[in-house]
Each structure stands twice: as structure tokens, then as C-alpha cells.
Amino acid sequence: MKKWTKIVLLLLVVTLVLSAVAFGAKYKKNPPWVIGFSQIGSESEWRTADTISIKDALSEDPNMSLVYADAQQKQENQIKALRSFIARKVDVIVFTALVETGYGPVLQEAQKAKIPVIMVDRDVAKEDQQYRLTIMGSNFLEEGRKAANWLADYLKKQGIDDGKKPVNIAELQGTVGSAPAIDRKKGFEEIMKGHPNWKITHSQTGNFTRAEGKPVMEAFLKADKDIQVLFAHNDDMALGAIQAIKEAGLKPGKDIIVVSMDGVKGIFEAIIAGEANCTVECNPLLGPQAVQAIYDYMEGKKLPAKIDTIEGIFDQTTAKEAFPTRQY
Ligand code: GZL
Asked: If you compute the radius of gyration of the chain from its CA atoms, what whole number of angstroms results?
């Protein structure tokens, strides 16, 4: 090849590369970015799926490197992790709040250090939301309403609720002070107002775990067998309670209607086996949305205050068909 041709070709390649860089995405800070992800623990099937989704999405992205911290359900561990991210000057913090309150000071420190905070799943208290960029996750209030509306429809169809006879409900609450526990309860009780014969006769936290849901349900049943419905703030506690109902000689899904949230594999199996009745989906697969939010931020786009996830509801008429394609 003639010398001149080689020079022209070389110049062409250099120009192409430079223009690609010049007209490539304009970032606030050029990658690679260090992302600190503070997760609350591994208390449920839902949390495990959520952690895998977010860790995979962040670590598989060529522009991101992940610093991961598991708080093991302790807020002090989480605050320590956030402070270590700040000290390390990570580019973005991604975190889910174990409980709503107590994060104001550390979020202000992140803001002072000009480190953006993107919340996933559980938000912080209203007064501290000014220190975070956005929250992505479920609408817990709506999940509570969906559970109660499904129950009203089911009780009517089964001829169990004449609007007068008492419907006694046992409630397994999630982690005290957490956004899902507060808002799922609020949403459920909002719909209850339209059913004066419904009553929550027992209510206690099972901390979103099977191991704690079972003994709490055992204690409910020891005190009072006149329970028609179990409303559990997540499937893991419902699965623990189903064991307790069986050990008390009752049929879960029949003697006691079981309604919970998340949509994990275990509850699909219980619904298909007729031992549970309904699960309101709460999508944990937030990884891709978290990565997209980081790119949007780095490209200077304004993030919406809340990024909602799309969710369904499953019962004994739909669970069997949906189960094979479930991703968590
Ligand atoms: C809800 C999430 C809750 C799940 C539980 O988005 O925060 O925490 O419902 C999990 O299974 O423990």
C-alpha cells in the first residue's frame, strides 16, 4: 500500500476515534464510577432476589465498580457503611433504608461531600427525602389496598362475608418502622374502613422472616382459634405461619385465608398446593433500573422523585400458569 494511502487511512482512524470521544455521552464525571451499595440484610427470599439483581447489574456494567455492604438488619451497620462510602469518595451511593428514620445526619454528610444518593426499595422519612435523588421501588400503600380489595372480593365470592358476621384478621407486620410495614398496614386498613365487620384481632411483627413469623402465629392461635384471615406483610412470614396453622390442626388456605406480599417462589408453591390464597407482587428485580438511574444522573438528566415498578397480584386462579416464568 502506498505511503500516502497509509497516512490518509491513519488520519481517518484518528479523526473517527477523537470524534467518537468528543460526541460520546457527556458525563458529569467520566467513567469508571465507583458505586457504594448498602443493602439491609438477607431476611427473605425477596431480599435475596433484590440483592442478586442489583449486585449483578452494577458489577456487570463496564463503567461501574461495586463496593457492597450488608448491614445484617442493623441500622448502625448501615450508617457505618454509608460513612465508609463517603470517606472512600464513591461516585454514587445506592441504598435501601432498613427503617424510615435515623438517616438524616449521614445523608447530609453525603450531600456535603457531593455524593448523590439513589434509594432503592425502602425510602427514608419524608423530612430526609430532600437529601436523596430519587426512590425506585414499589408502592407499599397500593400493595396494602390491593391485598384488602382482593380479600373483600374473595370473601364475597366464597359467601363467607355477609357484611355482618365478624371477619377476624391476624396480622403479621414487617420490620417495625420500615416503609413497607407502615404503608402496607395503612393501605389495608384504608380499605377495611368499608368493611365494619372486619377486625384485626391480633397484630405483631414477624420482622419479615419465616423464623419469626411462625412463633408469632403459634401464639395467636394458642390465644384464639377464631381467626378467619391471616394478613402477612410478606410471603416469608406467611410461609412460617402456614407451618404454625398446620401444626395447630387447621387447614391454611381453607380454615384460615392467607394473604401476603412479594410473590416469591415459596408462596407460589403454597398457593398452588391450596395452602395460601393470594400474594401481591412486589418486584425485587431493581438492578437494571438502578443502573439506568446512575447513567441518567451522570448524563445530567433530572431523575423523577419516584420511579415506580410494575406489579401484579396472584391467587389460586392464576398462580399455576404464572409460576413457570417467575424470575424470583
Ligand atoms: C419490600 C421489601 C420487603 C419485602 C420483604 O419492598 O422492602 O423487605 O416485602 C423484605 O420480603 O424483607
From this structure: 24
Is the C-beta atom of 44 inside 6 A of ligand 1?
A: yes
Tell me the C-alpha distance between 94 and 258, whole Å: 34
- Residues 316, 271: contact at Cβ < 8 Å? yes
Mean model confidence pLDDT for the chain: 94
Write down the pTM of the prediction.
0.89
Task: State whether the beta carbon of 120 lies less than 6 angstroms from ligand 1.
Answer: no
Give the C-alpha separation, 32 to 273, whole Å.
Answer: 48
Domain 25-137+284-309 has CATH 3.40.50.2300: yes
pLDDT band at 17 (very low <50, low <70, confident <90, very high): low
CATH number for region 140-282: 3.40.50.2300
> Are 25-137+284-309 and 140-282 equal in CATH topology?
yes
167: Cβ–Cβ under 8 A, 6 or more apart, which residues? 155, 160, 161, 195, 197, 198, 199, 228, 229
Q: Which of 244, 264, 266 is nearest to 255 (CA)?
A: 244
User: Which of 98, 100, 121 to mutate to test ligand 1, by most ligand atoms within 8 A of the CB atom?
Assistant: 121
**20-63 pLDDT, tens digit each:** 455 567 899 999 999 999 999 999 999 999 999 999 999 999 99
What secondary structure letter does DSSP report for 256?
B
pLDDT tens figures, 114-163: 999 999 999 999 999 999 999 999 999 999 999 999 999 999 999 999 99
Ligand 1: which atom is nearest the Cα of residue 121? 6
Give, using CA atoms, the residue closest to atom 1 of ligand 1: 180
Report which secondary-structure segment, H or E, holds 34. Answer: strand 33-39
What DSSP character marks residue 89? T
Residues forming beta bridges with residue 181, ordered by sequence position: none
